[in-house]
Inverse folding.
């Protein structure tokens, strides 16, 4: 599902050059559930951004479902992200002025769906994360765990092939963290969705099939 070959990522300014990733080779099959671990600054989020087509490598090749993507234009990349990838972030990134169900519908606005179809899919996604009683609430009325459930519902509403979760439990206590990973694991198992999760928590990483470890931008696994 995701194939990275000889990936290198360099960030340059007028005065400094930073090597964020070096010689990364990762092959992730369809339906896998794996985690990415490493100390702060090791390149975890950069790696996830390249997998999610949010950033391009300085060197190397990226394939998504067997399709090379490095030379795609921005419009094609945006379309591929919207149809194939769901994102979950540590800070939720919900729109406080929108209700829960409207937040979940957001990715579907870029698809050719009627308003009733969007609403139906959003409600179904919220049911999967156990928030059917909160559809009309606003993010400011929810707990942190509930906000992250909304974010997961938003990630799965478009039925993506891949879910990329960047520290999805970083702002949650241990109980809520386990519940979020339960949801991701269930979706992975039932829908055969590929899930890649960045985490600092070894206990949560142990629940995944494989761990990619990074240190100073390189693989150590």
């Amino acid at each position: 599902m995701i194939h990275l070959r000889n990936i290198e990522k360099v960030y340059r300014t007028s005065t400094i050059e930073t090597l964020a990733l070096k010689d990364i080779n990762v092959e992730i099959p369809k339906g896998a559930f794996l985690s990415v671990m490493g100390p702060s600054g090791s390149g975890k989020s950069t790696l996830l951004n390249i997998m999610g087509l949010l950033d391009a490598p300085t060197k190397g090749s990226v394939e998504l479902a067997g399709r090379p993507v490095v030379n795609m234009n921005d419009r094609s990349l945006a379309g591929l992200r919207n149809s194939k990838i769901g994102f979950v972030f540590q800070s939720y990134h919900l729109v406080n002025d929108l209700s829960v169900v409207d937040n979940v519908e957001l990715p579907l606005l870029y698809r050719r769906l009627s308003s009733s179809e969007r609403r139906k899919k959003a409600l179904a996604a919220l049911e999967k994360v156990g928030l059917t009683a909160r559809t009309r609430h606003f993010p400011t009325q929810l707990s942190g765990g509930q906000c992250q459930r909304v974010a997961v519902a938003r990630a799965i509403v478009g039925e993506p092939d891949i879910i990329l979760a960047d520290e999805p439990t970083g702002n949650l206590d241990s109980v809520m963290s386990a519940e979020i990973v339960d949801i991701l694991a269930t979706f992975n198992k039932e829908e055969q969705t590929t899930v890649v999760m960045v985490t600092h928590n070894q206990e949560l990483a142990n629940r995944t099939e494989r761990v990619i470890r990074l240190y100073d931008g390189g693989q150590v696994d």
